[in-house]
Amino acid sequence: MDDLIPIGRFSRMSRLSVKALRFYDEQGLLAPAWVDPVSGYRYYRRAQAGRAEAIRVLRTIDMPVGEIRDLLADDDPELTGKRLTAHRERLRARLAEQERMLRFLEGLIDRGGRVMPYEVTVKEVAAVTVASLTLRTSLAAIGADMGRGFGTVVSAIGVAGAEPAGAPFVVYHDVIDEQTAGDIEICVPVPAGTALPDGPVRYREVPGGPIAATVHRGPYQEISPAYHVVTGWIEQQGVKPAGAPREVYLNDPQTVTPDELLTEVQFPIDKAPG
């Protein structure tokens, strides 16, 4: 008991707030050495400072709490090294994406805030039957959620003994930004009458009708100007949106570079102009 340190002193020693220490205890990362059964006050040992520092550093480099728990539970140095290497590769990919976005921003600034030229077309699209999965997501999680979501939909189609019957697309039912989560609907066209297995993936028909559309060429993260152009065109033409916008993915990100990606942004409208 002589080497026990109150949580306040351990917080100063470890440079982790009292709130963070309580959270890491709840997550099974760093439990107090002793908790007073009467007051509930938490005490730590000096020997725990090394683990606290490891947690602090790993959180600084954005390793998820669950992965930290697994890493610190490993007794195998080789497995620990593999976990750190995997996280290093994720950080490198994130850095590359951020550098690409900075180049995009520099180009936008050089053009005086003017967006790249997009040609807006109006066309009539037919109704399409799809395997559909609706997800609640956030701006930070949308990439990973879409990847898992498309995997879930394609798996359900396979169980049904069917094949995708067209380009996949996502319907954005809500505006999603840094402050606001929202619903997206992942859709993969399937033959009419496809009997999907019970589960979150459902069969439905997406209605057809007139749409205003443009094609974005380049990384998905740089698609916002295409939305600006189409929504501005809709306002200028005096027509009205008639449904949630969609992104139709015209080629496969696993077979082309980010600069070669083609995405059609579609806005259903109430009527063709003129």
UniProtKB/TrEMBL annotation:
The keyword Lipid metabolism does not apply. Signal peptide: none annotated. Gene3D superfamilies: 1.10.1660.10, Regulatory factor, effector binding domain. Keywords: Coiled coil, DNA-binding. It comes from the Bacteria. Residues 81-108 form a coiled coil. Pfam families: GyrI-like (PF06445), MerR_1 (PF13411). Residues 4-74 form the HTH merR-type domain. This is MerR family transcriptional regulator. The lineage of its organism: Bacteria, Bacillati, Actinomycetota, Actinomycetes, Micromonosporales.
